Amino acid sequence: MRKLAWASLGFAVAAGLAEYVLKREELPLYAAALAVLALSAPLLRDRIRRAKALTLCLSAAVGLLAWWGHYHIHIGPSEALVGETVTISATVRDYVERHEDYERVEVRVRDGAPREKALLYMYDGTLPELEPGDIIDVQIKVTSAVTRQGARSRVYTAQNQNLLGYIQQDTLTVAGRTAHPWAYFPQRLSHKVEGLCEELFEPDTAPFVKGLLTGNTLELEEDTENYTAMRTAGVMHIVAVSGMHMFVLVAFLRLLLGKGRRSSILCLPLIGLYTLMAGCRASVVRAAVMQALYLTAPVVRREPDGTTSLGAALLLLLLVNPMTIGGVGLQLSFACMAGLVYLLPRIMRWMEARLPMDKKPVAYMAGNVACTISATAFSVPLSAAYFGQMPLWSLIANLLTLFVVECVFAGSLVVCALGAFFPAPATAAAGVLGWAVRFCMWVYRTVAGLPVASLAMDRPRTWLWLAGVYVLFALWSALRKRGRHIRLYVPVCAAAAALALTLIWGKLSIRTGEGQVAVLDVGQGECVVLANSQAAVVVDCGGSGWSSAGDVAANYLLGIGKTRVDMLVLTHLHADHANGVETLLYRTNVGRLVLPAGADDTDWQRDEVLAAAERQGVPVTLLGQEEHVSVGGMELDLMLPMGESDMNERGIVALAQMGQKQVLIMGDAGREAEMALLEDWAVPDVDILVAGHHGSRSGSSPLFLLAAQPETAVVSVGYNPYGLPAPNVMDRLETYCDTVLRTDEQGTVVIDLGEDDDGETG
Q1: What is the pTM (predicted TM-score) of this model?
Q2: How many domains does the chain divide into?
């Protein structure tokens, strides 16, 4: 392997260890140890091994020191201000991002705080129409860029956003303009392209085209149906600007400019401009560096080399910011590219020996299959770990749409360039491209609706299956190298059979006993699944976890063989109980939606939920009085204690009878609702209590616990600034209950309701 590749490997491994494993204060000691170890490299007799050992040790030592130095220079000073309110002067770097419940803008601090790139958030207010290059004075409350919800966060530091702040009301003023507005030309160009997309394309296609050209998927994410379909179909990489976009861009430019050395040189500044326009994300920089090296190799009379290009791109990114190694985008991008570099040639040779590659349709299809398999081979474990699901039909979605997407990308570039000067013909051309976009979205929705469209990766058995698949194909490859020519269908069929057994195993898990109660880990929120062999009921679906509560619930249901939710009950419509509902409605077939009739304190949330239910054809019940419901062998009492204080007290309380077991789900009900239940309704002895209001001191009163006498109490809670669950409530629960569990410590709590036992927790 080339020296540059070995150097980048050593640097990257060291940065990864510093990011995930090693203690920050010990990094210089480890670097010194590696430097000493490098001194022993000359003892190796083999010259090549000696060079590799020396390169690895020294590059790893530099990587550790680079990470350590980056933290102390760029991160530490900002973290020292966490919790303080400061007044800063800053230069706006990009346009304001406007989300549903907040707005934010990226800036570079000039004075008043460390001069770092920062993200400033505005809640309960509106930011003015800022432009890149504006100088603003603003008062902010500094928050941490390295922790989120009490855990280590790498989202911001991987993008070199080292300071976060909440804008204080009515403190932002525009003080002037920077002396170098030309420096923000890429951001202005990107904004212009986004504006042209909105003007030229229809509203249903513009968000996709905008994401495809610039990587801005904010509007696409707001289209819950299509966005969920794309994630389930495994095609989100299409709008994450990366290698495909750069490849199509370069191919298009060389088609216009020719394929000589001069055209290669002319392509380089355009590649750089597009990289800046797309925000210099890790995947874009990687693709740009590799394309640049590919184009310049013939100019300097060298053969293009994938390993060297990949190593150069990785080393460049990590030298600028070693913490980029913690970014999901970088990891997935390089994993995909590693597969293309190392597996694609082997797969193509295998196909060329068996398929008539002289026929263009066959060659095109074979190339797409080979590229898709190669790109996903190394990235699947990473994406499964990060996103909790593995799309099983992504190959079909990619084969049907990849060529179309490439054409849409190139065509949209032409349309936007034309639209800047001749809007009428550009609008007509955009209308034609719009149908191509609609075709792609139809394919994604169709694939997402296939049986077992994605495999939930929230159980050991699914990870065991995935590991087994890799072992199986590794053995197949090793045996072929030794002359044992085993047909490909053997490992393919074995993997498919193992997958079928895995899915059957999930279905069998609720075939015995009286079913399962699962309190899902959705962060600070609540989502409870009641399931038996006949039906599934979900109570609440909201939270603050990295994944949508709707995805968490859908993945869990698919894991136990449930594609239908017979009833979805929302105790009330606060976001931490309902912000995942739209996703769940699109990913599963919901038979009935129940919410309290008085849910009017959060009209925007109610309107969105009702609109999503109408789009999916889900019947809605606005519960105004107590109701008894039978659902597939489960008996549910939906009660309205009708407290008068706030939305929490006016919510639904659900009691489920599952065989001989009773489950009481309190939602956010507090002491007032509890007293109303005790006064107007005979609270039975329950087996499982999902404690009210995430363990808040306002609920789980001694009198109520004494009446309910729960054997097991579960507190659905995540990181929060409110001190939940309250210590005195936990003490009470431990006094009155045999077992107390909490999702922030145990994760998802699954209780199997056996016929002759009290259930198990997992």
Answers
A1: 0.85
A2: 5
Q: For residues 335-359, give the mean pLDDT.
A: 88
| E strand residue ranges, 548-619 | 564-565, 567-569, 589-590, 593-596
SS3 category, 725: coil
Q: Which alpha helices (H) appear in 91-205, and where do they start and end?
A: 185-200
Q: Could you give phi then psi for residue 714, rounded to 5 degrees?
A: -125, 130
Is 354 exposed, middle or buried (CB count within 10 Å of its CB: 0-12, 13-18, 19+)? exposed
Inside any domain, residue 350: no
Q: Is the pLDDT of residue 29 over 90?
A: yes
CA torsion angle for 631, 636, 640, 641 (degrees, to 10)?
A: -170
Q: Is the peptide bond before 77 cis (omega within 30 degrees of 0)?
A: no
CB-based contacts of 423, cutoff 8 Å, min separation 6: 199, 200
Helices and strands (H, E) in the chain, number of each type: 27, 27
User: Domain span at residue 29?
Assistant: 3-76
Task: Report if residue 210 sits inside a domain.
Answer: yes
Element (H, E) at 5: helix 3-20
Question: Residues, the chain, total?
Answer: 762
Do residues 469 and 373 make contact, with C-beta atoms less than 8 angstroms apart?
no
State how far the Cα of 596 lies from the Cα of 570, in Å rounded to an integer: 8
Over the stretch 696-747, which tens digit does the pLDDT of each residue have? 988 899 999 998 899 999 999 988 778 889 999 999 999 999 999 999 898 8
pLDDT band (50, 70, 90) for residue 761: very low
648 pLDDT more than 60: no
With respect to residue 761, please indicate whether it lies within any of the assigned structural domains: no
Cβ-contact 264, 298 below 8 angstroms: yes
What pLDDT does residue 602 have? 52
Same domain, 503 and 554: no
pLDDT at 468 > cutoff 80:
yes
Q: Are residues 524 and 659 in the same domain?
A: yes
Mean of per-residue pLDDT scores for the chain: 87
Assess whether 414 and 469 both reside in one domain: no
Of 527, 530, 649, 624, which is closest to residue 578 (Cα–Cα)?
527
- What are the distances in angstroms from CA 720 to CA 148, 437, 439, 523, 579? 10, 41, 43, 9, 17
d(CA 731, CA 470): 47
Same structural domain, 405 and 548: no
Amino acid making up residue 116 = E
pLDDT band at 762 (very low <50, low <70, confident <90, very high): very low
Same domain, yes or no, for 191 and 327?
Answer: yes
Judge whether 676 and 653 are in contact, CB under 8 Å.
no
Of the candidates 566, 574, 746, 715, the one whose C-alpha atom is nearest the C-alpha of residue 650 is: 574
Q: Domain check: are 550 and 614 in the same one?
A: yes
